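Request: Have a read of the protein record below and say how the chain folds.
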Amino acid sequence: MEQIIHPPRTSGLLASLRAGFGLLVHVLIGAVLIFVASLVAMMTAVAGLMLAAAALVLRYIAVRRAAPASACVNPAPVTLQARRTPRGWTVE
């Protein structure tokens, strides 16, 4: 009688390890994508808050200029004289 030599059963173990490693890679890629998306969202929120703070600073802390002085010194009405010239009307 002939003796049959069976190969060691490592193919099932290697397939399980390969499947487990593939699952681990997928989980890590998903975690990295979620981390990057949350980082982008946080940077966008911080940029918005900085823009809002700058707008408030410009609105409330900016130096206010005094109103220009009124050009009317004499409260009496002024009557202007106009006359027609060859080039058009002239006001004196």
User: Anything to note?
Assistant: Residues 11-65 form one domain. Residues 6 and 25 are 33 Å apart (CA to CA). DSSP finds one helix and two strands in the chain.
